[in-house]
Amino acid sequence: MHNKILEFILLDENNEPILSDLGLPTLKTGHVPKTEKDLLRVISLGQPVNVINAFAQEFIDSEQWEWASKYYDYLVELNEAEQYNANLPDPIPTEDGTLIEVEPKALPTEPVRPAVRTVDEVLEPYKVTIFKLQRQSQIDNAVIEISTGKTFDADEQSITRMANALIKHWQLAEDDTIPWSTADVPTGVMVECTKAEIVEAHSLATDHFATAWNIK
């Protein structure tokens, strides 16, 4: 019966279960259980797909560990019941001379191991949510590079700021400069950019935004 939880118990150098004085195996320690609530939190944070997939696998492992823990408890109860039943007290005589048999303990029910699910099966109910969050994350963290090598933030707020700047400075010539905090300098540090560079950056940023929203 130990073979059913072989992957969850400690083994000796001969790959045999390490048994306690009661003849029971010893569960491995160190597993940190992950719940569906934990998985939903990771998804809601808009983490990268590889992070979500890795966490989903940990959740799958936790389902199996939960069963292994229940199976171990079952072995403990089964051992206790079998030990008790193997040493039942003698029948107890009553005043009228009849004997009352001592009832044996009922054997516990063996827990059924759940099917090992795949990552795709676990994440199937959340596919639409994950897609929307990933798309928004792609937009929020977008950076584009223009032909002169300068990089610009391309999130929705930055697109609006560039459009407002171009409206404000519509009378400037293409080679006139507009101070701008580009994506490759610390926040608040201003870089002299030409109006033409801002126009190109705005065009590329809106193209990226449109592409992201049209992902199928």
From TrEMBL:
Organism: Pseudoalteromonas gelatinilytica
Protein name per Swiss-Prot or TrEMBL: DUF4376 domain-containing protein
